[in-house]
């Protein structure tokens, strides 16, 4: 009984933290116009000063996805496997970018704390290991493989990638996305533009 109580408390803390992180991610992607209907998810509630619609979208998606587990353990396992793969590669993408651009001293400068000459080796091992475990998460867990024991994570992963590619090219996301923004496009357009004046120490506000 005590263990169940502790587990319930811990799950609540983890759930609240995950809810906050996911809602912030939805808000950030919507601010950068990377999600369908971004103009809806970006809205800030005037009373709470939080992206309330993005929070409830996250809650709805989380409940809907977890309800799948009541009907099919195979399906929910595949979804969890894809989540693990996606999370791991979200770490690896910046590592790969660092490995590619680290040779260009004009575009990349190491921070005050780094691993020196061991950095490239550790980064390389991180990418290789993530690639290896990603394959493991896509494999069936039992043999012989049947319709009920098949790991459908690869199907879900390919579906997500296809949807992302279609939305990027056909949906026009590549025309809207210019990189991370500090504020929504509307606020950027309404904000005054600062341009240098003829005097070195003066600035003129252009409305």
Automatic annotation (TrEMBL):
Q: Pfam families annotated for this entry? A: AA_permease_2
Q: Does the keyword DNA damage apply?
A: no
A GO molecular-function annotation = transmembrane transporter activity
Membrane-topology descriptor: Multi-pass membrane protein
Where in the cell does this protein reside?
Answer: Membrane
Its main subcellular localisation, reduced to a broad class, is: membrane
Question: Which keywords fit this entry according to its UniProt record?
Answer: Membrane, Transmembrane, Transmembrane helix, Transport
Q: Which PANTHER family match?
A: AMINO-ACID PERMEASE 2, AMINO-ACID PERMEASE BAT1
Q: What is this protein called?
A: Uncharacterized protein
Could you read off the lineage of the organism from its UniProt record? Eukaryota, Metazoa, Spiralia, Gnathifera, Rotifera
């Amino acid at each position: 009984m005590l263990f169940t109580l502790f587990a319930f408390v811990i799950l609540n803390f983890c759930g609240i933290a995950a809810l906050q992180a996911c809602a912030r991610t939805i808000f950030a992607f919507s601010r950068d116009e990377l999600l369908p209907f971004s103009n809806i998810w970006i809205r800030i509630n005037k009373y709470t000063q939080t992206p309330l619609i993005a929070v409830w979208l996250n809650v709805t998606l989380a409940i809907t996805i977890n309800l799948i587990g009541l009907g099919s353990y195979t399906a929910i396992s595949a979804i969890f496997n894809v989540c693990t793969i996606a999370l791991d590669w979200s770490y690896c993408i910046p590592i790969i970018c660092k490995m590619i651009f680290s040779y260009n001293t004009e575009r990349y400068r190491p921070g005050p704390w780094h691993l020196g000459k061991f950095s490239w080796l550790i980064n390389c091992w991180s990418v290789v290991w993530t690639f290896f475990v990603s394959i493991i998460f896509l494999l069936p867990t039992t043999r012989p493989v049947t319709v009920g024991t098949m790991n459908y994570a690869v199907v879900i992963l390919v579906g997500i990638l296809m949807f992302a590619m279609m939305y990027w090219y056909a949906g026009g996301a590549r025309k809207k996305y210019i990189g991370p923004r500090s504020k929504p496009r509307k606020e950027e357009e309404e904000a005054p533009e600062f341009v240098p004046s003829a005097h070195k120490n003066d600035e003129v506000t252009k409305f």
